[in-house]
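Intended use. Records like the one below are meant for learning the mapping from a protein sequence to its folded structure. Do not use them to infer anything beyond what is encoded.
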Amino acid sequence: MKGRPFKVLGIQQIAIGGPDKQRLQKLWVEMLGLEVTGTFRSERENVDEDICAIGSGPFKVEVDLMQPLDPEKKPAVHTTPLNHIGLWIDDLPRAVEWLTAQGVRFAPGGIRKGAAGYDITFLHPKSNDEFPIAGEGVLVELVQAPPEVIAAYSAIM
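Structure written out for the chain above:
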């Protein structure tokens, strides 16, 4: 769309949820060889996750393997196996401002620090009357790209 004041640079992450992250590790780490690069636990987000990686440098893609701390609480990170996708954004505050003005619905929480330390926010998976544009069932995370990622993508775009 003409006049968009930001760019989607690439995929930052794919988050996969299940009731037991050990079963997810069996496939993604043991069978496919992804490296576990960190962990993240949050009572507020109801998540215990292993942060894995594919690729390297500015083109590295996170694969987060997530299980709920409490399967009875929300958010239920395990009830949608493909929990969310994360997209690198070159200017997150401008993106949020512009998308909101276009009628895109965001999930509660605003811009905040994510598990990997980048500023993030989420597009809501469902639209409503006030905000008729949403993820159509998919939770989409927008992630502020650091300068080295912006530079690397700028060189190839």
